[in-house]
Design a protein that fits this description.
Elements: H1 2-13, H2 23-32, H3 36-45, E1 47-50, E2 56-67, E3 74-86, E4 91-101
Length: 107
């Protein structure tokens, strides 16, 4: 029950990430091929793990079936990883990483 409440609280704070994306994370997101919607899904539903400097990371895999903006190769799947600070009033996205693969990724 307690973890369900923590999840609901995290989803409430992650509700609108427009103001939570740092300038750096917005540019990383675009250059690496992620969308704001994918980052939001990753933070809301991904499994939370500890990261450096007291931050957290969360990953989520998506069906991609397109060409990577990084190397212009075709990939079936992509995994978006968000590094974020979980602050009392909001979640701040610090870094967005994107991994492309043709092998199915399990969550």
């Amino acid at each position: 029950m307690e973890s369900k409440l923590r999840n609901q609280e995290r989803q409430r704070r992650a509700g609108n990430l427009n103001n939570a994306l740092s300038v750096s994370s917005k540019s990383q997101m675009l250059l690496r091929g992620a969308t704001e919607e994918e980052v939001e899904i990753t933070v809301r539903t991904g499994t939370r793990e500890p990261a450096k400097l007291g931050r957290f990371k969360s990953r989520h895999s998506f069906v991609f079936n397109s060409f990577s903006p990084v190397n212009q190769k075709f990939y079936k799947y992509k995994t978006v990883e968000s590094i974020f600070a979980d602050e009392p009033e909001k979640i701040t996205i610090v870094t967005v990483k994107v991994y492309f693969t043709n092998s199915e990724v399990t969550q």
